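Example record

One chain of 441 residues, shown exactly as stored in the release files.
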Amino acid sequence: MRYRAVRPLPLLLGIVICCLGLGCSNSERIDNEVVAFWDIEEDATPLSTELNYLPIDDSEYPYAGIPRIVIETENHREIKDRETEIPAKLQVWGADAPESEVMELTIRGRGNSSWTHSPKKSYKIKFNTKESLFGIHKDREWALIANYADKSMLKNYISYKLFHEISDTWNPQIHFIELYLNNNYQGIYAFTETIKKTTHRVAINDNDFLLEIDAKTKANDQTIYVDGFTYPFKIHWPKNANEKALKQVTEHLDNFQKFISSDKVSKGDEYSQWIDAEKFTKYFWLQEFSKNLDAYYTSSFLIVRENGLVEMGPLWDMDAAYGYPGWDVNATIPTDGFRQKKIWLLPFFKNKSFSQYADSIWKEMSPIIKNYADSITSIGMLLEHPYVNEEKKWHKLESSLNPLHHKGYSSYTNAYTDFRNWYINRLDWLDKNSNKLNLKI
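Predicted structure tokens for this chain:
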């Protein structure tokens, strides 16, 4: 095996990484030196133990126009589960040279069905110290999302960018990269912020709660159950909440559920004492627009403020949306009615003033959503080249037998064009029917 390797030369590294229009950031200096290349034979001293770079063998999967992240685990240990944090090193590469220093971190698996059913795994990484990649604010914790079930690779990206523009709720920044793990190519990934309480992510107060509706909680998760609601709520903040805090938020959500189930919800404006109507409604419409199968089932985050107001968001995990077949045929058809039939917000639509307000919010959102249709095409075109590597690795485009793949495509262009067509047809239908939701309850 031959490795691409680097030798220091006395120059200044001034390369700018441009991440598919997601924002550009200056690459870091590497000891004030730029790099040259030569071949190193297989029996040479392992590169990463002595020099300030990690090896990358890109002879089979060459540079394709987006940044590469190279990760090497300790002793090349395999990542076998979602619990074991394995020490590792990470470096960002551009076309010909490293774009960052070597950074130390731990890595583990992440995801639910994607971890169980997908051969292409997603990962959670945690740096030893706070790091900034691709111009995003420094933090220790990040995610590498495989997007294996989404043949367009664009559903999470478009959704996060869209929600960021529509709502003032913080939502993760996201960048496309190609991943090399222990010198093996892994494919196109979304490098993204994780959802956590911090001043530059979910900027809530210490006495607020960050929760997640999650039907797939694990044994060690801290959870609560609310009367009248099917699925558990996972506590993300406060960490290791005490019994008093758990009782407080449970009682509040129990009372919230009672209010929703009562006649009071359809009268007056008492709803404004329970929810941040604007944030709640914008989150609802984006989930309804996308027909997300996971909405209010798993990966659905909410904030309960100290003053009692409930906010939905941030948005997370949208690959089971925009026509994903799954278990609900209705969800695959963009013009076949409303999707969110049994969730918190629907009873509010019995209230005439709220229904009118929600319709006005949709009319504000619709032009913004429409503008993003062209982004599906433009970003898809930018991924055409790296998708050659992705398809060579995973052979998923034409597959329709895998539990995560129910529709095959002859080309990547067809995959993202199909997403765009569904998106436009759904938008047209909702524009004509958004004011009729109260009639469906």
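Notes: Residues 3-193 form one domain.
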